[in-house]
Specification:
- This protein starts with a helix and ends in an 8-residue tail after the last helix.
- It has a single domain, classed as Up-down Bundle (Growth Hormone, Chain: A).
- About 85% of the residues lie in helices and about 0% in strands.
- The longest helix has about 35 residues.
- The chain is mostly helical.
- Helix 1 packs antiparallel against helix 5, helix 1 runs antiparallel to helix 7 and helix 2 runs antiparallel to helix 13.
- The chain is built from 14 helices and no strands.
- About 5% of the residues have low confidence.
- The protein is globular and about 50 Å long.
């Protein structure tokens, strides 16, 4: 294991625990201030719009001044944004908190670049997959912590998320290594496609996949409340289960699958599985069907997400990985900007399952497009 990897992993995991505290309850929290499904969608989109603007800038900055200071800046911004959201007395203050949090939300892409800095090419799929497992940790621990904190009042989970981000920033200042060394920026290799063409195509696919997944992410609490009478705590339990599956796949199975199959074919497979899961979830009327759908969504996401990250690492020049990962995160942020309000509007007008069914169809289309572009045949 490369020196410093576990410190990077722990920093990302703690950051995403805070994210996991907020996401499952944000929609219901906003409803307390009179938000409609459409407004809840825009609440998620506001975070992503700020991320869209600032993620490439933070990535480029990390290529110049180093990964560590940018990660610390991101964590401090997350702490401030969560604090503002928790202190909200009106809906517009929640929007303000999400803007602050989104503008500083570049820690994951910079951390991915940091792992690529210190890992040998043959190690990267496994290490990127394990870093992706931090998402699962966030969904496992975050909802559980948020559910317990909510017992103290609806504002408390956001204060807990703010405190966690602040502690993480201090820990990163003390323990996080700087990975942007002469060795990491001097390496060069040839790629199968011109980097700009490949990265643009991967960004477009990342946009579509994210757009589809956030249709589920942004409206599930509303979907669960309407169709299955799920309360805030029950929705958190669902995300807990998703997180467990993500940890199992990305923390262990993904590295072995990548060695056998390759990350490019795996990406297409993940899209197909995730798309099928979203369609099944959208049509679910009973718990057995819902569980199958959620399991497929989790497996598909657990495969597709680290596959896409490693594909970007393969195509990006070593001296601009931060910028490339920031560009990819920005493209995904476009999906998070457009997806939630459209999903919320579809929820209000076309039925509770429509955002998930539409998202599933989009994932299948993305898999077909990836095949048509021949991305699955490129050299790993």
């Amino acid at each position: 294991m490369p020196k410093g990897y576990w410190t990077i992993w722990t920093t990302v995991a703690l950051d995403l625990v805070g994210f996991g505290i907020v996401v499952p309850i944000l929609g219901v929290y906003a409803e307390r201030f009179g938000a409609s499904g459409y407004q809840v969608g825009w609440l998620f989109a506001t975070f992503s719009l700020a991320q869209l603007v600032f993620a490439p800038l933070l990535g480029r900055l990390s290529d110049r001044i180093g990964r560590k200071p940018v990660i610390i800046i991101s964590l401090v911004g997350t702490a401030i944004g969560s604090l503002v959201t928790g202190a909200a007395g009106a809906l517009w203050v929640i929007f303000l908190g999400r803007v602050i949090d989104g503008a500083s939300g570049g820690s994951l892409s910079v951390a991915q670049a940091a792992v690529a800095d210190i890992a040998e090419p043959e190690q990267r799929p496994k290490l990127v997959g394990m870093l992706g497992a931090a998402f699962g940790i966030g969904f496992v621990l975050g909802p559980a912590i948020g559910g317990l904190a909510a017992l103290g009042g609806p504002h408390v989970p956001f204060y807990v998320a703010a405190a966690l981000a602040a502690i993480n920033a201090v820990a990163a200042l003390v323990r996080l290594p700087e990975t942007l060394t002469d060795r990491s920026v001097s390496a060069r290799r040839r790629v199968a496609l011109p980097a700009t063409s490949a990265l643009r195509r991967l960004a477009l696919l990342g946009f579509v996949g994210t757009f589809a997944f956030v249709a589920f992410e942004a409206t599930f609490s509303l979907f669960g409340a309407e169709r299955f009478d799920l309360a805030e705590g029950s929705s958190a339990v669902v995300f807990l289960g998703i997180g467990i599956v993500l940890v199992a796949i990305q923390g262990g199975g993904f590295g072995r699958l990548a060695e056998r199959v390759g990350v490019r074919p795996l990406y297409r497979i993940g899209l197909l599985i995730g798309g099928a899961g979203l369609v099944v979830t959208g049509f679910a009327e009973g718990w057995p069907v819902l569980v199958v759908g959620l399991l497929l969504v989790s497996v598909g996401q657990g495969i597709a997400s680290p596959s896409l990250s490693e594909m970007v690492n393969q195509e990006a020049p070593a001296d601009s990985r931060g910028q490339a990962m920031g560009f990819q995160q920005s493209a995904s942020a476009v999906g998070r900007v457009l997806g939630p309000p459209l999903a919320g509007s579809a929820f209000d007008r076309a039925g509770s399952g429509s955002p998930m069914v539409a998202g599933g169809v989009l994932m299948v289309v993305a898999a077909v497009v990836a095949t048509a572009w021949g991305l699955h045949r490129l050299r790993d």
